[in-house]
Specification:
The protein is α/β, with parallel strands linked by helices. The protein has two domains: 15-231, Alpha-Beta Complex (Spore Coat Polysaccharide Biosynthesis Protein SpsA, Chain A), CATH 3.90.550.10; 245-316, no CATH class. It has ten helices and 13 strands. The protein has helices at 42-52, 69-75, 90-100, 120-128, 187-192, 203-216, 245-254, 269-277, 281-297, 306-316, and strands spanning 15-18, 29-34, 56-61, 79-84, 105-110, 113-114, 135-141, 151-157, 160-166, 183-186, 221-231, 257-259, 262-264. Strands 1-4-3-2-5-10-7-11-6 form a nine-stranded mixed beta sheet, with helices on both faces. The chain starts with 14 loop residues before the first strand and ends with a helix. The model has no long low-confidence stretch (mean pLDDT 89).
Length: 317
């Protein structure tokens, strides 16, 4: 049996929900707050989100129960805290939060990322509910209000995938994935896409897999000048090194071939994979067969393959 998730949150880690989660508005958007650690004034974060006009706030807690969780849940009845019982990757945390979302949209933020557009949640939701985009990524600014290169463009070079960051300068520019996971997701589309692949543990390759799968399946991830967020500190460098997760990313996203109206993973790709993977014969064969079965399961969801995607992207740019 394939270990790749074939349904949304196929294997859900255990967690506890704290807080009433009473609706605070009718905008249709929930704020999902992830924690990167460090000391941040959580009350100030929740005040900003309340002023912004979000219907709900879902805070994902990855450590022990915080000392202020009970106080915050009383002060902000629109908030819920998801206390995870084991370590989880950022993508897995987003998946878990999405299970609790009750609005058409949810906005993923970190505790060191500020969204301070008072009343902005309603204006953003009104605009985004009119389109059909899977994920809208904001303009990311530093503490000097300078826009940062967080728009990600893919390129194929000698059979390897590369990414190039740009500063978003126009409305609707496509991005391969939401930088740092920060973005406004359409809940229904996110679930139909099966969310992030929780079997991948590298945050970078998890984002790459999500973004490629989205575009290969005909969905859009695009930037908007309407939405801006401010990073309190410096952006942490992404670890883009070749991680063991790259093998699965390659098989799921780069190796499949799209012909007619379906995709398939050709058997001939196995030998190249085996030589490059560093895995033993049996392990490589099992992993290849698992992904081949997964591609066959979703063969009609594909709209193009990786080469076609990068070529179309180059033409669009």
């Amino acid at each position: 049996m394939s270990t790749i998730p074939s349904t949304f949150n196929q294997d859900v880690p255990s967690y506890t929900v704290i807080g009433r989660g009473e609706r605070a508005g009718t905008t249709g958007i929930t704020a999902v707050l992830l924690s990167r650690g460090g000391r941040y004034l959580r009350r100030s974060l929740f005040q900003d989100l309340e002023k912004a006009g979000f219907d709900f706030v879902i805070s994902v807690e990855t450590g022990k129960e915080s000392y202020d969780m009970e106080e915050l849940s009383q002060r902000y009845p629109f908030a819920q805290f998801l206390l995870l019982r084991e370590s989880s990757s950022p993508g897995e945390q987003i998946n878990i939060a999405a299970m609790e979302v009750r609005t058409p949209l949810f906005f993923v933020l970190w505790n060191d990322v500020r969204f301070v557009q008072s009343g902005g949640a309603g204006r953003i939701a009104d605009r985004l509910l009119q389109n059909d985009i899977l994920c809208t990524v904001p303009v990311v600014q530093n503490s000097h209000f300078e826009a940062l290169p967080t728009l990600i463009v893919p390129a194929l070079y000698r059979g390897s995938i590369k990414t190039i960051p740009f500063v978003p300068v126009k409305e609707g520019s496509l991005s391969l994935y939401p930088f740092d996971g920060v973005g406004i997701y359409r809940t229904e589309k996110f679930i139909k896409l099966t969310g992030y692949d929780a079997t991948l543990k590298s945050p970078y390759w998890q984002l790459m897999d999500f973004g490629f799968r989205a575009h290969l399946w005909g969905e859009k991830i695009a930037s908007s000048q309407l939405v801006k967020v401010l990073y309190d500190g410096n952006l942490a460098p992404q670890d883009t090194s070749i991680h063991p997760d790259y093998r699965r990313f390659y098989l799921k996203n780069i190796a499949p071939v799209f012909r007619g109206d379906t995709a398939h993973l050709p058997w001939r790709r196995f030998f190249h994979y085996f030589l490059k993977s560093g895995e033993g014969w049996k392990t490589a064969w099992k992993n290849f067969r698992d992904v081949r079965a997964w591609v066959a399961l979703y063969k009609y969801r594909f709209r193009l393959d990786a080469r076609q995607l990068t070529e179309l992207w180059e033409d669009a740019e």
